[in-house]
Design a protein that fits this description.
This protein is mostly helical. Helices cover 65% and strands 12% of the residues. The protein contains 2 helices and 2 strands, in the order αββα. Strands 1-2 form a two-stranded antiparallel ribbon. The longest helix has 22 residues. The protein is elongated, with a radius of gyration of 16 Å. The mean pLDDT is 86.
């Protein structure tokens, strides 16, 4: 398995986490609230992984640059 495939697997895990967060991963006990994951951090990592995958695919020739 190459780096691009590993990054795509990791990306899928982050997308799954993002979906779980959006469905609600926080709860309150009395006046305290527990949040299991930070949506902003997950979204930032998703963006970073997409960019890294795109760059590696472009360098490896898996995708071709499109010019308009």
């Amino acid at each position: 398995m190459d780096r691009i495939d590993l990054l795509k697997q990791r990306l899928q895990l982050y997308l799954d986490a993002e979906s779980a967060i959006l469905r609600g991963q926080s709860y309150k006990i009395g006046s305290r609230e527990l949040v299991r994951a930070d949506l902003a951090e997950v979204m930032a990592m998703v963006d970073k992984l997409y960019a890294e995958i795109d760059l590696l695919e472009l360098k490896s020739g898996r995708i071709k640059a499109v010019t308009f």
